[in-house]
Amino acid sequence: MACRYTNAGFALYLTASRVLPFSLFGVLSYVEPVLLVLVSLTFLGEPWQSADTFVYVPICAGLVLLALESAAKQPAVPKQPAPQVDSAHP
């Protein structure tokens, strides 16, 4: 039974690698282990070990820096005025 779920997960992974842009797929490969650790700590009650710090803190720091860099490079979008509606003409 577990093999069936593994095959489905692998098929979804391959589909995502073809459908998503390469940069987004790469970033998600770093986000996934962080999310798995958060789920294991909060919902499954797994203990945090000191060795985990050397793995997950740099990954989290890298993701934060990547998000900050992306936000800094985002061009400001000028707001366009709302279109005027002429109430005299139905």
Q: What's the number of helices?
A: 3
- Could you tell me how far the N terminus lies from the C terminus, measured between alpha carbons in angstroms? 64 Å
Radius of gyration: 22 Å
Structural class: mainly alpha
Task: Detail the poorly predicted runs.
Answer: none
Beta-strand percent range: under 5%
In short:
This protein is an all-alpha fold and 90 residues long. It has helices at 2-19, 22-42, 50-73. Helix 2 (22-42) packs across helix 3 (50-73).
Question: Topology, please?
Answer:
Blueprint: H1 2-19, H2 22-42, H3 50-73
Write a structural description:
It is a single chain. This protein has three helices and no strands. Helix 2 (22-42) crosses helix 3 (50-73). The protein has 90 residues and is mainly alpha-helical.
Which keywords apply here?
mainly alpha, 0% strand, 90 residues, single chain, elongated, 3 helices
